[in-house]
Amino acid sequence: MTMLPLLADRIIGQPLLITTEKLEVILGVLGGRIGIEDVFQAPAPDANRFAGRESQRGPYRVTSNGIAIVPIIGSLVNRGAYIGASSGLTSYEGISEQLKKASTDSEVRGILLDMNTPGGEAAGTFEVSNLIMEIRKKKPVVAMVADMACSAGYAIASAASQIYTTQTGMMGSIGVVWVHFDRSLQMQNEGIKPTILHAGARKAEGNPFEPLSRVTKANFQAEIEKLHSLFIETVLDGRPSLKEADLRATEAAVFMGQDAVKIGLADGVSTFDRVLEVMSQQITKLPAAPAGYESNPKEKKAMTNQPAAEAASGTDQAALDAARADGVKAGRTEERARIASILALPEAKGRQALAIELATGSDMSAEQCSKMLAKAAEEKPAAGASSFYDAMAANGGKPNVATSGGDAQPKDRAQANIERQAKRFAAMV
């Protein structure tokens, strides 16, 4: 099934924030397949593939110091998941998805918009602009107009923290265009006479089978003016230094390089590499995570699990050391009690080696060790082992083992292991 009718439906009879030159190209690409004479086909533009690397966390490239490069390339449509890359179109929903993931990616500390777009559909434009306005409160967002950011493209760029362009970069076209095709004469020549039945006086407004009436033109013009005002308000929100009268005075003209800077549409003329370099230098001076911003739920959990003494800023180091010492002391006391209770278990008798191994070589509780010891077969005691265990059990699980000297000598390997473990425990208590 061809997608050209769907594509044509997005272009014809819809308000567009796009340059007229690009509109001519799109209509030429659609060609005679939808009843418009073919003009030429333009190659689809592509994003920068030399800066950064493909991120493992999102559909964008990211530099080594945490700058996500989000491409905004080609003509823009609201929801264009069905459109292939070869068409040269990009969807607002795809751009938004990249921006959302970059904004919550803890690896990303700033976002660079790589822009080369003449604009596109009005629907969806302002939602992307609003999203960027929110993101830039948390992370810097810079727009680099290496080629073009016109109409809807400029509405998006204007929401960035800063805008830079090249000497030949084009931007502006702050206006709205709407196209209607009157096929009435064509159909008359072909002997076709359509009949349109409808309920509601405006239901069939703008249909291609009859010329636009004066009232219909006025209605559509009113909608276009509303969109134009919304466009201007969006630009002013992102760049409050501009004035509404000045934006209207541009009459949707396109400005190149330094001319765009002079009237306030851009902040400077540079190159993609230079902007990326300066942004990298600035980004290293920023905190890894902006204050009050949750960049990653896992990181937030890790922070909340830190001891309060460590998380508090300005806490006296001596107090921290004392708190740590108290924690270590309490831990040792608890561990001693656990080991003693295991060694004093009735089930440990006849299973001395296993009891000592469980007590000193695991984190199991006395209850868990009791069950395991009860299921284990009794060991064949080595000479002196029973007297050793009896003495330890009688002492509440605390062995009375000399760390040096003494007449007692291990009789075999099993006894040596018991005494080695006992000495290890003695060192702990």
What would you call the shape? elongated
And the CATH topology of the largest domain? Answer: 2-enoyl-CoA Hydratase, Chain A, domain 1
Q: Tell me about the largest β-sheet.
A: 9 strands, mixed
- Percent of residues in beta strands: 5-15%
Instruction: State the share of residues found in helices, binned by percent.
Output: 40-55%
CATH superfamily of the largest domain: 2-enoyl-CoA Hydratase, Chain A, domain 1
Average the pLDDT over all residues and give the rounded result: 76
Number of strands: 14
Rg, Cα atoms, Å: 37 Å
| Count of distinct structural domains | 2
The oligomerization state is single chain
Quick structural summary:
With 429 residues, the chain is an alpha/beta fold. The chain has 17 helices and 14 strands. The protein has helices spanning 4-11, 20-30, 92-104, 125-135, 152-157, 184-189, 214-238, 244-249, 258-262, 272-283, 297-304, 308-311, 317-343, 352-361, 366-375, 385-394, 413-428; strands spanning 15-18, 53-54, 61-62, 67-73, 75-77, 89-91, 110-117, 119-121, 141-150, 162-165, 170-172, 177-178, 254-256, 268-269.
